[in-house]
Amino acid sequence: MNSLRRRLILLLVASIVGVVALATAAVISVRGGGPPPELTVPWVAQQMELVVRLLPGPLPDVLRVQFSDHAAGGKVDRPETAMLNDILRRRGLDVLAIVSDKADEPGQLASVRLPDNRWAIMEVPHITPPRREWLVLAGWISLIVAGATAVSVYFTAVLIRPLEMLEAAVSKIGSDGMLAAVPEVGSAEVKATAHALNQLSSRLKTAMESRMRLVAAAGHDLRTPMTRMRLRAEFLDDERDKWLHDLDELDRIADSAIRLVREEVNQDAVEPVDLQKMVRDIEAEMVSLGHAVSIGHLDAVSVQAGALGLRRALRNLIVNAATHGKACSIDLAVANSRAVLTISDHGPGIPPELLNKAFEPFFRVDPGRLQSIPGAGLGLAIAKEIIERYGGTVTLENRKSGGLAQTVVFEAV
């Protein structure tokens, strides 16, 4: 019973059979005593009236009446007896009637004393259960089970169709890691599943393209300093400092690329992190390194993240603001159960048309890719990778008063 399909079928069949069985039991219990007296007693009174009025002449065969010197035995049903006598009196008959239970089987008998002191005895209509009632009930339940099984199999197939679509889509992943497009047709749930799969495919494609751009950018950035190194090979004695500078640049690019990949692979344990304390520690570290970093308003708040990874991400953002933005201030606020960290600098900002590219690997605002400030252009990409891994978001926005604002948002805990 490990199959979800089988479990759903069993659940639906059991539910349908259970409901029908309860309804059947309720109906049987309600009508178990036969038709109500309000229906049977007036019919008996009508038959007795015919007998009294037709005697002493012959009686038709349809009137199944027995005559006796005494009333039928058995326990007297007083309410129905009173009802029968009342109906007979209203019909103008001054006779005595008695309704009693049969002694040896279900049912009742009505006895009326005739003018000649004989008693006319007639059966009160009674619906008896059919013979072999258990066999009939078993057939009824079998039909219900068969019908419920057919319905359950159909609806189970409908319910698990999104899962089957997911399994089929995953099994068709190509060698390039891409998912085949899934048609968004069918019920609302199937459409939602297909849409989610197509979104996943689109994101995978974007991620793959991003990695390809990273490799291409790395190759481009490495080619230029390596070319310069070849040109200066003849001037080792006079160009030693330039050689060392180019080698340092190569080290920074390679090290940043390795750290970016490492951040995607290595994931430290997620735990509540005191964001206020972390910001104060990073600010103290930045000040000790000579960066112009200040703290504004800080609310006490914790977030769910990996402590080492989050510290590395925030440090990258703060270093980026302190170096490229000349100086920066840090504010931390809690709004709508969210922790909002804002890093504001006083630099030139980023042209609006380039804001959406700022998180791409090796991005530089300067089109000439000058390196007046050390760095390989991977700090923001690494920070974004870490923050989004822990469920947060990071956005960039040019401040109206000048400078750039980096905003990090996490769910507070």
UniProtKB/TrEMBL annotation:
Catalytic activity: ATP + protein L-histidine = ADP + protein N-phospho-L-histidine
Main localisation: membrane
Keywords attached to this entry: ATP-binding, Cell membrane, Kinase, Membrane, Nucleotide-binding, Phosphoprotein, Transferase, Transmembrane, Transmembrane helix
The keyword Membrane is assigned to this record: yes
Enzyme Commission number(s): 2.7.13.3
Membrane-spanning residues: 134-160
Record's bilayer topology term: Multi-pass membrane protein
UniProt KW Repressor keyword: no
Localization, UniProt: Cell membrane
Alphabetized PROSITE patterns for the sequence: HAMP, HIS_KIN
Domain Histidine kinase: 217-413
The protein, known as: histidine kinase
